[in-house]
């Protein structure tokens, strides 16, 4: 995809972390960026900083996501790049010891369903609604490309750790969307890929730096090379390359400094 000034992009979770960096990079590349997030204060501030648009969107709500796309398209036109970074999930072992009851406790089906909605279902929701809009847009080039969707999986999709039965399996499901969705959309000229970030210096992880410096140093040392957490800007750089390179399709990209996660 040639980055022409004025092309539109949507970034979910664009108020912080990987999404914020992706929104910044796309704006710097000339895109009109709509940020979808539930954090209105941070989302509006970042949208203003990059000359974009903030849309208050709850990715677990069909109506909210549809309304977000409608608002973004009314302001910027049809998005040609969608980057889905937002998610919500829960944590717990399939069966673990419960101190309160003094016995074993099963991770509830309701907790699993919550994570499935916040990770996997929301990924399908955002990707398919965006693809429907792209399908009705004019091709951008001689290849017939109409746009691309970039989903965020995780190294946990392949290296799920103890307590990540929800997160790991649902992120694996995100990877599982990529090939069949890319094949579904191939005749429409819409590409689909995913990125599996390793341990990145997002606000959640940066909070550990002060709370537990020893754990912070251990995490940095666990990365083969370079021995540090990934920078959100490095994630955003890959987002741009996937969007730019029209031959990247139906692929899951691991971005992790070579790390392979241990059981815990």
Automatic annotation (TrEMBL):
Q: Which Pfam families match?
A: adh_short_C2
Which UniProt keyword terms apply here? Answer: Oxidoreductase
Recorded hits in SUPFAM superfamilies, A to Z, give: NAD(P)-binding Rossmann-fold domains (SSF51735)
Task: State the InterPro entries in the record.
Answer: NAD(P)-bd_dom_sf (IPR036291), Sc_DH/Rdtase_CS (IPR020904), SDR_fam (IPR002347)
Q: Quote the EC number.
A: 1.1.1.36
Q: Name one GO molecular function term.
A: acetoacetyl-CoA reductase activity
List, alphabetically, the PANTHER family matched.
17-BETA-HYDROXYSTEROID DEHYDROGENASE 14-RELATED, SHORT-CHAIN DEHYDROGENASE/REDUCTASE
Q: Which residues form a coiled coil?
A: none
- Phylogenetic placement of the source organism: Bacteria, Pseudomonadati, Pseudomonadota, Alphaproteobacteria, Sphingomonadales
Q: If you read the UniProt record, what top EC class would you report for this enzyme, in one word?
A: oxidoreductase
Protein name in the entry: Acetoacetyl-CoA reductase
Membrane-spanning ranges: none
């Amino acid at each position: 995809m040639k980055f022409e000034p004025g092309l539109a992009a949507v970034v979910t979770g664009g108020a912080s972390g990987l999404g914020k960096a992706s929104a910044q990079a796309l704006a710097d590349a000339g895109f009109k960026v709509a940020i979808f997030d539930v954090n209105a204060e941070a989302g509006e501030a970042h949208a203003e900083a990059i000359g974009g648009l903030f849309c208050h969107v709850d990715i677990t709500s069909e109506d909210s996501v549809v309304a977000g796309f409608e608002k973004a398209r009314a302001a910027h036109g049809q998005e040609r790049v969608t980057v889905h970074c937002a998610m919500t999930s829960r944590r717990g072992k399939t069966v673990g010891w419960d101190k309160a009851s003094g016995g074993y406790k099963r991770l509830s089906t309701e907790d699993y369903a919550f994570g499935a909605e916040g990770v996997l279902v929301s990924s399908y929701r955002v990707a398919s609604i965006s693809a429907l809009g792209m399908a009705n847009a004019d091709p951008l080039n001689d290849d017939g490309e109409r746009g691309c969707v970039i989903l965020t999986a995780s190294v946990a999709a392949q290296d799920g750790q103890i307590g990540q039965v929800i997160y790991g399996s649902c992120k694996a499901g995100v990877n599982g969307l990529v090939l069949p969705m890319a094949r579904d959309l191939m005749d429409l000229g819409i590409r689909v890929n995913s990125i599996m970030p390793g341990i990145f210096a997002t606000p959640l992880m940066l909070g550990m730096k002060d709370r537990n410096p020893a754990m912070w140093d251990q995490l940095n040392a666990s990365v083969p090379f370079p021995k540090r957490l990934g920078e959100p800007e490095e994630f955003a750089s890959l987002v741009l390359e996937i969007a730019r390179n029209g031959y990247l399709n139906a692929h899951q990209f691991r971005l992790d400094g070579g790390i392979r996660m241990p059981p815990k």
